[in-house]
Amino acid sequence: METSPLTACRLVDAELLLSVEKGDILAEGSFEAEGEAPCDRCSEPVPVRFGKAFQTVLAPKGQEPKGTGPVELHADDLDVGYYDGKGVEVNDIFWEQVALEIPLKVVCSEDCKGICPTCGANRNREACSCGTPLEAGPFDVLKNLKGKKE
Q1: Strand residue runs (E) in the chain
Q2: Which residues pair with 41 in a beta bridge?
């Protein structure tokens, strides 16, 4: 499974209870996972731990909505998956839930100063003498609009 932005990911703890009702499989469980990801500001490796409790329904293929037109989904429809009748792969249930919980942004600390865009120095480790760039940014034009009325 692709675990971007994580460089590694593994399940540390997992529980799953499967029950069958009228051909549908109800999966209730929880997991704890850990991994490592580069900090989005300074690129240093950061240990990441996350988890969640989940509940999903797996219905036999053939019960999915038919047609090619637009289908209106309700909140209950978002926790429904489909299986082909040969069985379900427990790993797939967990990895789907892990993929939904992977953090989008990882930082080593809230105080992380990041990497200097000019010289590439990690500003958490060493002071940078580049200063602030004097180039005009794409939004500098908006600074002149404040207070002007046409």
Answers
A1: 8-21, 24-38, 45-60, 80-83
A2: none
